[in-house]
């Protein structure tokens, strides 16, 4: 078991622990320690406490800088969507951490290995262990691989209002008048695809499609924001 | 106004901002911005969002390392006592931040300047500004002056169970038998002072006093922990 997580971490994330005992601790539940007394084993909870705070800061700082016009309320909602049991348990599964957790027999039988709350904890404890072993830069690199690309693939779009965000970005330099136009509707009646573009008074800023005009407008605003970001970088 | 906060920060904390606009932003409430439109002012809320996460991590990491045997549940309770409105608003007052907040007239009349929730926000936004301006080391230094000494003066003692903590530390090397003995009771009947010492099987580990035996025992355990820490450093 131990060999394969090392191999997976190296292959998928170029991570090699200096202190392997930190990785062991991060992947061990109290129930396993209780079943193996006198082995000096530690369970993940303390490291998880630290990992949670590490993730909070790295995610907060990233979205704070990436969305310079996003008000606090939205930053808080976005962070809550990124730093939550649903997200972290999914990331833990993607990283295959679920396969390497050391559980007591009762917990194993009870299905703990697939329990989102445990997987969320393990994602945090892994990050805590990596932070203790190699410091913040290693965690940043890991999080830039596992979490942040999902901002671009739309995993957290339900909490980001791109239309408002675009309006705010454009208003930095004074009033901004933008409008959304329907370019195209295609497909069978019950499965229409809408194509929408967003314009300011001079040019087309972005284009998006979706199953409703509202979704297509959000996609167009997101496209415009990405184009503006590329231009401004 | 601006001059004196600069002077206070320099004198009390050896802090000088490179980008003064960050400090302005950290001390400005939305109500003030609303009353002074077209001046390009920003209010503290976004920076506070960041400062909150910075404080969470620095406090978490400090207590994680300082109390290496403290279980997660207690770490979480201790962090909650340190990172909370009551504590942060008190720190803001100690730093005299309350004197420098820029408020709208209505908020001023409504007593916002003394409102704990606002002072807590301002403490976080100050930390966020310092972090953006000078990075984590400057915040660490500030927090080591403003927050961490209070762990030694007992400000958070109500959430730390020193007796259990001492037991846990001593058990690291196997079973530990300790006992608490009353050394002295003094004072008038309704205001007794108790003096208690804690011993292991060989020696006296610490001494403490208090208005009850329970308080004196906690003080003795705390004294023993400090003595052990000095010995182990």
TrEMBL record, chains A, B:
Residues 161-230 form the DRBM domain. Gene3D superfamilies: 3.30.160.20, Ribonuclease III domain. SMART domains: DSRM (SM00358), RIBOc (SM00535). The active site is at residues 52, 124. Keywords: Cytoplasm, Endonuclease, Hydrolase, Magnesium, Metal-binding, mRNA processing, Nuclease, RNA-binding, rRNA processing, rRNA-binding, tRNA processing. GO terms for cellular component: cytoplasm. Coiled coil: none annotated. GO terms for biological process: mRNA processing; regulation of gene expression; rRNA processing; tRNA processing. Belongs to the ribonuclease III family. Homodimer. This is Ribonuclease 3. It comes from Pediococcus damnosus. The gene is rnc.
